[in-house]
User: Fold these one by one.
Assistant:
Number 1:
Amino acid sequence: MKKIVIDSYPISVPYVGLGEFCRQVGERLGKLAPELRSRYGIELYFVVPPKFKGYFGNEVHYIGMHPSLRRLFFLFPISADLFHIPYQCSRIKGLYCAKKQLLTIHDINFVYEKEGKYLKRAINKFRKKIKWADYVNYISQFACEDTERYFHMHHPKKIIYNGVADLSSLSQNISFPANIPDDFLFHISSLQPKKNVHLLVEMMEYLPEQNLLIVGNWGSDYGKMLQQQIKECRNHNIYMLSNITEAEKAVLYANCRAFLFPSLCEGFGLPPIEAMKFGKPVFLSTLTSLPEIGGKEAFYWEELSPKSMAEVVRKQLAFFDKSTHYAERLKQSAARFDWNRCVDQYIKYYLEILEL
């Protein structure tokens, strides 16, 4: 039997991008485990927090690990034909007893976000992971080009796009949040500085006829700064929510007028595709991976200044409202990003690496 070990530790935070990624991939691999065993002689093992043993079903194996031991995992006498680290910021740099190792690279945002000794430390950690890896894959062409621009990469590689869940079925029979207007523009993110949300707040000064709902982590320093900025707005047309469920998020996608995402740095960009699966127009920056992910159907801010952004939103919303087919085109474009297709491509890569 061939043994594949997969680090799936982020499933403990399911509503963060990496947690969602590990959950979606793990759940589908768990369902396919009997076929992988009978057809290819493959056994799957997942590294998870101890309380998440059994999370992906009974057809796979689990390696429960306390957080304090993760940095020492590479020394554990666990043999594997393939060890897959599905995110580049894992505390596990490798597995000494693995014959081959695959590293999934989502982004190198640390290059843009950190400075001084913190940047140097992040670069050194990433270089160690690259050194351990025999194979890599990227979640977008941009992530590939960006990584290879900063680091000398000579690994065999593939581009495997993430899937994006269709949340439309979750929006049924869920009540709409109180105190939120029926007609609103929508943004959801971790509310980090790179998300550029303060520009949306400033933009609303030029869109007094519209409402904006922002959902995210308001407890961060950037979130607190945004709260103060919103309090000082003259139009009082910005609303805030936090700690929503997947079903509540689906309701907001289903009822919003458009989704806004002026991010400065994205390896993929999950929320815009979630919105497009509802047939909602999305407004994106032209930076990093977003044009690749949004495609021709998204609307783009060529200039990230509040007044210019407001003009684009007003103009393109009027265009969208007159169109009879644009919502369907958005759904078709978003259909490219399917989790079953994504996991099928990972399995093909596993088989290629293991020469099966």
Number 2:
Amino acid sequence: MDANKKTGSRPTLEGVTLEMIITRLVERIGWEAMGAAVPIRCFTHDPSIKSSLKFLRRTPWARARVEELYLRMRSASAN
């Protein structure tokens, strides 16, 4: 199995900051949909970019889910 082929087929987040991810998700689907997809308090109760960044930087599992959501959204818009 070729390692380059495996990594080349998966979209990356290289050059995309967490703030950019959250901002684009908010613009595209809104806080309510984000809270439904990733049910965390910073998306469902008085959401803001600042509170979301603070929480996601400290919580790896939540950050991973938000990144997955962003990648799914990005790949869906590319199709």
Number 3:
Amino acid sequence: MAFAYDNVKLDKGMYQEAGRSFTQVLEGLDPSERYKGTSLEGLDAFQRQLKRFDIKVRGSGSDVVEKFFRTADSAVLFPEYIARAVKQGMDEGDILPQITAAVTQVEGMDYRSITAQADGDDKEMKLVEEGAEIPSTTIKVQANLVKLRKRGRMLVASYEAVRFQKLDLFSVTLRQLGAHIARTQLEDAVDVLIHGDGNGNPAAVDTVSALTYDALVDFWAKFHPYEMNALLVSGDMMVDMLKMEEFQNPLTGLNFQGTGKLTAPMGAALLRTSVLPAGTAIGLDKRYALELVQGGDVVVEYDKLIDRQLERAAITAISGFAKVFPEASRVLKVSKGG
């Protein structure tokens, strides 16, 4: 049986189509729906091109970098391979999906989020008498733009230096690069959660002299009517919490040993991160607190990678964060004198 993917003409202009990624362009030329019920079902258009040129990117039998440059067509696949490896590194261990309520994709660098007046009586569904006016909640566009930042790294390597390098090992380096980008994005998210997004909405801060179970319960209670279902903590805060008697509950220990995930005594997901200052924790209702704004996917400078066979190429990702409901997140700090 002949497959269409064998005859797709590849060129670097496929990376330049506005509003569509390289894989989306490929899917338009070679839709995955055609392969249902075949041995290629489950592969996307890019993965089918790797199969076409017999390029193995993972495992002990992975090919060398040089395999991508055997033909002009296969060389076009190299930037997408790099972008996918970097994205995999960003996703591995990334806690942003666990603290974001919504993800918005935008084109360009200008974006305004929305906010709703949700304090006081606006939180209650009042009884409406016959003929009376129905109370309203006002949704407004934020006064200030969301700050979108470009985060990235420069890939510097000559073709001669890596041509015989196994792709499986080369991917490890790329995934590490992605992990660095993800960490800086988390730093941006934490900064917005603490200080606000420029629209006068910094988090409320509770300061205690020592981290105790009672202090955590009091902190948790202040979220009503929201729910504290995620708790970001610094390394020292994590250690102090694990030493609490309440964390020595057998069920908590069994859950940690069985899944590797820790749950706070009040039911929140406990997320340790080194981007928080010492003695700091951020509690949030992840359903309502934070919006992640992305200016597209991971971008790789394709010209240098294809025409000049590596050399120097920038790998970047554009993102920013906005607060949705400011009351859905709070900061807990342990004073140094405690």
